[in-house]
């Protein structure tokens, strides 16, 4: 920073009134911008400003398991030729002292300052437990706001799933989950072809059947009416959630301040091929299967927790209270992704590509019950998803946050968004990964487990597909969910339950 002639105010203590405090925000450096430095500045987007408020100060953690030991020097060289060509990875968030405007400011980056490679005992006891404790401890350590907001941890320790583990930790203001995963994939290549980028499956559009003009006209009128109606209903429920509508206080629901509690980060890998069997047999999408598994797993888990609470303990009897309201905040990237090819070219040739945070979220109901036919879970999930596809709720939530921010400022918009999320139970996302095995700077990947923490949920879940695997990542508050592996068992058993129901 000194090479740019900046004069940052001391950030070692938060009691000074000028230490990154603008509109109540304390996680930025306040600087006095010189005229010759204006070309080094880029205004922060509305979402970036939101993620730097106290209410939504959250981080992304991407855990990459490798099938070989990680060569630190190779990773360093790879980062220097890729991520350092990306403006967000070479900039720091600052607030201009005179105008109070938040911006990204270019700075010099030493990759060594962003790499953490602890010296570990390769023959340690319980390496899986060590990995879980290590990643969980990262949630208690904030990033240094005087440097670009990312760091890479290299753990050369053999676990049950990988021979070594790499961890990318970064602040959510750098980009949304889809952008970050796409950027990581842009740094990878096919294991079978070191020069080729990985292949990401895309959704196939159904062929339109030829129909008469009147029939097509009636269809589009009906379609627009449904979109208008469902969007209006979801908008009303969204506003009701801001004001008073809360989820039932189940054993999975976090209380006040849950977003600031220490987190436990865990993951489990299940068979993507098994999910495809259910998908193909019922003519569904992977998203439908994911939602069905989640609904069934939550129902089984809560039934056990309520049974233990009431002293019955048996998971075979129905211990669930009636009329449980359990909703998930499902995140959507409402701007088309730039694609890994465009991001690879951006880092290689320093061209421009779409980037940033432009995300909305949808409040989705998870009916909690124990039906006689397990496939009813998937049928219910598909009905809910198909109905949500006819709604513009994700765009409405994005527009509402932006409008609030424009009128009342980032602090109020952050509190309002946090209030909506806190009135639901879980944050859920599902991201599509490569269809083939890939390498990250020459290191073959065994799995990828991205997650997020800092939001007002006791549970966040991320589904990430890769090759023939689906990795489920959880960030949990251990005070609310002390047994996350039991929840994993219930999710995995739900998938097996669907397969068995299909054979019958």
From TrEMBL:
Subcellular location: Cell membrane; Endoplasmic reticulum membrane
Annotated GO MF terms: diacylglycerol O-acyltransferase activity; long-chain-alcohol O-fatty-acyltransferase activity
Topology within the bilayer: Single-pass membrane protein
GO-annotated cellular components: endoplasmic reticulum membrane; plasma membrane
InterPro entries, per the entry: O-acyltransferase_WSD1-like (IPR045034), O-acyltransferase_WSD1_C (IPR009721), O-acyltransferase_WSD1_N (IPR004255)
Keywords of the record: Acyltransferase, Endoplasmic reticulum, Membrane, Transferase, Transmembrane, Transmembrane helix
Catalysed reaction equations from the record: a long chain fatty alcohol + a fatty acyl-CoA = a long-chain alcohol wax ester + CoA; an acyl-CoA + a 1,2-diacyl-sn-glycerol = a triacyl-sn-glycerol + CoA
Domain O-acyltransferase WSD1 C-terminal: 355-498
This protein's record includes keyword Transcription regulation: no
Span of domain O-acyltransferase WSD1-like N-terminal: 131-290
A Pfam entry, by short name: WS_DGAT_cat
Main subcellular localisation: membrane
Transmembrane segments: 220-245
SUPFAM superfamilies with a match to the protein in the record: CoA-dependent acyltransferases (SSF52777)
Pathway(s) it belongs to: Lipid metabolism; Glycerolipid metabolism; triacylglycerol biosynthesis
Family that this chain belongs to: In the N-terminal section; belongs to the long-chain O-acyltransferase family.
Protein name: Diacylglycerol O-acyltransferase
